[in-house]
Amino acid sequence: MRKLLLLSVAAIALSAAAPSNAQEIKQGGSMTVTYKDDVSTLDPAIGYDWQNWSMIKSLFDGLMDYEPGTTQLRPELAESYEISEDGTVFTFKLREGVKFHNGRELTAEDVKYSIERVVNPETQSPGAGFFGSIKGFEEASAGEAAGLSGIIVEDPYTIRFELSRPDATFLHVLALNFAHVVPKEEVEKYGADFGKHPVGSGAFRLAEWTLGQRLVFERFKDYWNIGAPKLDQIIFEVGQEPVVALLRLQNGEVDVPGDGIPPAKFIEAMNDPELKDLIIQGGQLHTGYLAMNTKIPPFDKVEVRRAVNMAINKDRIVRIINGRAVPANQPLPPTMPGYAEDYEGYPYDPEAAKALLAEAGVADGFETELYVMNTDPQPRIAQAIQQDLKAIGINASIKSLAQANVIAAGGEEDQAPMIWSGGMAWIADFPDPSNFYGPILGCEGAVPGGWNWSWYCNEELDAMAKEADAMVDPAQAEERIALWRDIYLKIMEDAPWAPIFNEERFTIRSARIGGDDSLFVDPVHIPVNYDEVYAKDVQ
């Protein structure tokens, strides 16, 4: 066994995001964040959209996390861990004295319960597939076993994971929301409503949730990480149109418009001398795509899916969002390892697309539906896609719904023929090419409630993916990335997606809220790392 001893979380958390003038940070104050739509759930086993992602991370903790504003792993509930030489056994020593919001101490049994709950098919967690390398996963995910044989509690503060194969991503997996720890008694108390009554061990606790109006988070005074969070309270106001939210920020009523700068106001905001210094730009591992449900005819024919890829004018769509993206031609974004720089993708060629439809036996076109999130600019992008499809004979009626409803439709095998992913598009859970596969393109994600909205399952590619993630030796790094590159190029041959663009992130904060810019375009705590930001006006 080789032991990897890491710095204490408290030391890292307090130093990583601290500004140069640390004296100005004082405990206290509040922040107001707005969203157009209500939050669907705060259950870490279920929540999987950008809106609730960082909220959940502030209510719950896991064994691992990332240094604030970065993609560098650090321990959280774990004090230290050991990894066997063959990469199949991970042993974690937990912190002692960590409390849940209900006052009970968190132990290794809670870690085991929480991960087994995610894998249990009754939970219908979209994150179940992330734990596929743990021994006993197949039996547990099929409902044939009550738990995972590969999770062993050695004592209240020691837990061991035995994997059926080496997994180069396993530490990243344990930093996901799906691995966050929940108390069994609270889950059993609330049942399916646990997501509305979340109890974790995170820096904040839920103090109020008035559906359709607001949520209030309060600082958890017994939080194990002394000095975090900085704020005493966060108020999330929902039902706020993005344009109104921006005006309220200008009036000093809002600190962060959670839906970002509305496209209709983007150029105006960028040129406003009072706003431009409050705008933060950051890169992200993002791909916006059109998913085609391969289980619903005629999208079960590869020629039809390739035709859709060739029908869409991506440059025009990028103009709709004021050039805040670059056209995409493959699932991986350009800055992700494994991106194929020499791959040109499908050209924009409506006539060739028509020929492919004829080859598929639908020369006269067909009727279908295109699901889209109802927040601007997503409906306008969907309309542009609709126009492009109509030009080759595909008549797509648009179903513009709240984000949660689109996600729910995508998780049903026979409901949504096409989904424009905008507003819900894939931003990497962790900086590794495998993350763009399992949950959204792999067989394990093509399950009820999952995020593989194309319901695409290629068992040959699944085997290649497992082979790639078994390469834990650093000497195999280049070989592993090359294998992932081949996987994504084969996916493009099958064309379950039409990749549209890779988007940059722009956000804005009020002048009274402090913290390093990276906290507001945090690559993991999307969109904001609430634990680390602070109020400047605390006396």
UniProtKB/TrEMBL annotation:
GO terms for molecular function: peptide transmembrane transporter activity. It comes from the Bacteria. PROSITE patterns: SBP_BACTERIAL_5. GO terms for cellular component: ATP-binding cassette (ABC) transporter complex; outer membrane-bounded periplasmic space. InterPro entries: Peptide/Ni-bd, SBP_5, SBP_5_CS, SBP_5_dom. Residues 73-445 form the Solute-binding protein family domain. One of its GO terms (biological process) is peptide transport. Pfam families: SBP_bac_5. Residues 1-22 form the signal peptide. Keywords: Signal. It is found in: Periplasm. Belongs to the bacterial solute-binding protein 5 family. This is ABC transporter substrate-binding protein. It comes from Oricola thermophila.
